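Example record for the data management plan.
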Amino acid sequence: MNTTHNPSPKTDLAVTQVLAQLLERLEHSAVPVGAEQYRSVVEHLVHEFEDVAPGADLGRLLDAYPAASEVYENLNYQHAGLCRSALDASLAAEISARETIARAMGAAKTNKDKTHGEG
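Corresponding structural encoding:
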């Protein structure tokens, strides 16, 4: 009888954090980085992400390492889209801009109405 073994997700993020730190260093390196080295780090990180349990600890790690966060987001795109992108900040800025424009248009209309009979 063949039994499938589904290992439980890893909760220790030590290796994942080291790889995330390394990827961040490669991303910001002043010295050119070889494609093979970069690819190797990303591939190892991808394998770590396959085994890591989602949760608050992973969220904090991804918040601290944007390059790793981007890799994670691309791996999970089919399930959650751009789940780690700063969509909330963009949406808040757009709403604020619309409100400011509406207020400015209202103030302009009020000023025009006040000066309409003067001349």
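Summary line stored alongside the record: Residues 87-115 form the longest helix (29 residues).
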